[in-house]
Amino acid sequence: MADSQRSELAMEPLTINSSRGAYTVNFVPEIETLVQILASIENTFLVLDSTVASLYGVHLKRLLEAKPYVIVVPTEEEKSLAGCETILAGLVAQNADRNTKVIAIGGGIIQDLATMCAHIYFRGISWIFVPTTLLAMADSCIGAKASINFRGYKNQLGVFHSPGQIYISPEFLITVTEDELRSGYGEIFKLHFAGSPEKFFRLAKLVENESWRTPSLGKIIHTSLEIKKAYIEGDEFDTGIRRHLNYGHTFGHALESVTSHRVPHGLAISWGMDLINE
Ligand SMILES: NC(=O)c1ccc[n+]([C@@H]2O[C@H](COP(=O)([O-])OP(=O)(O)OC[C@H]3O[C@@H](n4cnc5c(N)ncnc54)[C@H](O)[C@@H]3O)[C@@H](O)[C@H]2O)c1
């Protein structure tokens, strides 16, 4: 990656205030630096997306040699009690204690699973998130919500459990597929719309003039998180204004269900927003 692109990705950290303690979103342009940071944290247990494990095995080698881990195939079927059991069994097998920190590396599915497990293991242990999809970087990584699917119902079981730290390295996006990138933009456009009409139209113009993979992607992620921060700090437990961020989600979840999750989440909620606008 060129130096100019890297400096585009070096963003100011964001602090998210929560009644259960503040947490920080850190932007780390290089995966190599990120691995050094993660390797220096003691008493950790990694929950790693299987695609990321195979694409970034060489980069993560140092970490995987030094830390216990479990690799999870990120499907909506796995985002379930059965998927939680795999992770919890890994924690028990490693004699993880109350001070163990779960490090989740992957997209929204890995985040949801790891958060649920961190929430119930010993009634709550710390977790750190390294989002590797656009949707997880620009949206799901903050807000502390976690849900799993149950008996065919999407996101039926859930908890609130804030991470300790979040580390975003947009370098991971190089390998994300076009569909997954567009899925991320589904939530990004929703957030910019929730921010202001100006933000929404500025983003639409930028993407039209450049491309989905614009060099400004780091800035777009940052702006999305700034918009979401205002909503979640104003309504941490989703009882009022934060519900605006569920725009399009009822129809979106239905589409995900009837297509057996072949339509990625962000694309499904974009369709849901279109439908509700009619
Ligand atoms: N907890 C929340 O607040 C919240 C918010 C929004 C969505 N979600 C949930 O998140 C899930 C969707 O998450 P997602 O869109 O991040 O997708 P995902 O976690 O399903 O991942 C999508 C695909 O991308 C692959 N992948 C991950 N990182 C990659 C990389 N760097 N390069 C190449 N491939 C990579 C994964 O292996 C997977 O095949 C849904 O289950 C949704 O309900 C949760």
Q: Approximately how much beta-strand content do the residues carry? A: 15-25%
Indicate the radius of gyration in whole angstroms: 18 Å
What is the structural class? Answer: alpha/beta
Average pLDDT for all residues: 94
Task: Please supply descriptive tags for the structure shown above.
single chain; 278 residues; alpha/beta; seven-stranded mixed sheet; two-stranded antiparallel sheet; 12 helices; globular; binds nicotinamide-adenine-dinucleotide
Walk me through the structure:
With 278 residues, the protein is α/β, with parallel strands linked by helices. The protein has 12 helices and 9 strands. The strands form 2 sheets. A 7-stranded mixed beta sheet has the order 1-2-9-6-5-3-4. A two-stranded antiparallel ribbon has the order 7-8. Helix 2 packs parallel to helix 4 and helix 8 runs antiparallel to helix 9. It is globular. The mean pLDDT is 94. The site of nicotinamide-adenine-dinucleotide has 31 residues, from helix 3, helix 6, helix 7, strand 7 and helix 8.
What is the structure about, briefly put?
The chain is built from twelve helices and nine strands. With 278 residues, it is of the alpha/beta class.
